[in-house]
Fold this protein.
Amino acid sequence: MLRVDASLVLGRFELDVALEAPAGRCLVLAGPSGAGKTTVLRVVAGLVRPRHGHVACGERTWLDTERRIDVPIERRRCGYVFQDYALFGHLSAWRNVAYGLRELPRAERRRRAHELLDLFGVAHLADAHPRTLSGGERQRVALARALAPRPHALLLDEPLSALDARTRAAAGRELASVLRETGVPALLVTHDFTEAALLGDHIGVIDGGRVIQHGTAADLAASPASAFVADFTGAVVLTGMAAPGADGLTHVVIDGGGELLSTDPGSGPVAASVYPWEIALARGDDGRGGSAQNRLAVEVTSVTHLGNRVRVGLAAPQPLTAEVTAPAARDLELAPGMAVVASWKAAATRLLKL
């Protein structure tokens, strides 16, 4: 178990976090740039010393400011995968992996390096230099290097961000599998919720130096604690003024114009969230049927094809995004500038405090 409890001030930025990553599980800290994600990694690794803090991995205490314990970086046994992988350009792949094994005989270093490269499917690239490797291959070498000294914890800083979109999905699946097989606690940071959902057993959403909600990806998506979390998990967020309505529903007047209903209770200023795939689109009068009680006249601003799904940008009093199937988009002949009706159910509308 990796445990971190730390607070520090860097200029105007304040960090105050407490988190745990169990052995063999991956905890993901997800949030926007400047939220404090990488600073947490640096505290664990010993690169940043907090004003107050405690860092422990299993029975080992790496930092305890009250007891004046501060184990040096090289003795913390953290495997650290940097955002750009930070491989040594003048060394071959196997020598990069073997770099942290200098206490072992040369033959044993080479054996261990080749063993790990084989584990990641790049043993055939053992003598290649980083400049000749693809992004995905560099990632695998960096992971092998991080695991070579048999670390007590694994730290990963945006490990997929250096990859192109085509490589990212496959590399993400491979990484998720590796993280579950290491047997050590892993702490990973990312700004992408989809990536967090793929890689994390548990996710902490961080903003402004504080973890504002944590849980599984499904928990966060189903019950966001704030408008920020809803927006971060991919929901459309509309602000407005709520009041009790008819039939036990809550009536919300949307800022800028329009109205909607929700089954959630609410009163006063609120954020109403709905996920893009819960929004249906129809032409004109076609939007009057069905059980959906929320309907807004909107204009298509963009149509983006994502395999068999189509993401549709919509202009309304506040911007919307809908996600429909490719056949539905073809049937509607969706195109920028087209007027349509967006509709969704009151039960799909979650109300959150601003």
Summary: The first helix runs from residue 37 to 45. The chain has nine helices and 21 strands. The chain has two domains: 2-227, 235-353. The two ends are 35 Å apart (CA to CA).
